[in-house]
Amino acid sequence: MASTGLFISFEGIDGAGKSSHIEALAEAFRAQGRAVVSTREPGGTPLAEKLRAMLLHDSMDALTEALLVFAGRRDHLRNVIEPALARGEVVLCDRFTDATFAYQGGGRGFDWNALSLLERLAQTGLALQPDLMREPDLTLWFDLAPAVAAERLAGARAPDRFEALDVAFFERVAQGYARRAAEAPNRFARLDAAQERERVWRQLQDVLARRGWLPAVGVTA
Length: 221
Ligand code: TMP
Description:
This protein is of the alpha/beta class. Helices cover about 50% and strands about 10% of the residues.
């Protein structure tokens, strides 16, 4: 059966717990016979992974951060995301452009309209329809209070440049996500990430089931 590609992004502040659900969702789609590409940003291609290493470890200002993430995103779209969607596959992406608005826009205070311009430049002219600006079909937003996320992260691993920032930074990042969600309410699905893992998974399944992309909740564990 020919299927339409599906592009789903996972968003939330560091420590919100999104990563553990990505593999579970990949399995759920594979159980439906769908091919799945599981990828991430910053990163996802050899070039974008090099840019990721710079972003996470080298000192730079917010515009440089934004230019690096959009450069990596363009390469990722051209070489991984667009080809997979053209093959009708499911693309699960651990963070995408909403993270740029949340971290560089909200967290760093970088100009929102400038980010919108970069978004349009980087995400247009890629697919069979050159005028289309590529965006996720669905964004799963793991919403968690920054203080709770900080407790979860404490001592987990050596922090990168972002994880080392204070709770006030993550409050601004969370506000950035809320602003993006308000701007695209049909694309965003907010999950209450304060709940225990199994309940978050149920919420996630419910969102997918309501869109007709997975069987109704209660069928899979
Ligand atoms: P990760 O640890 O979830 O892979 O993400 C790496 C960090 O990069 C995370 O703290 C968020 C940050 N980031 C940005 O600042 N801008 C972006 O556009 C993206 C995708 C991530």
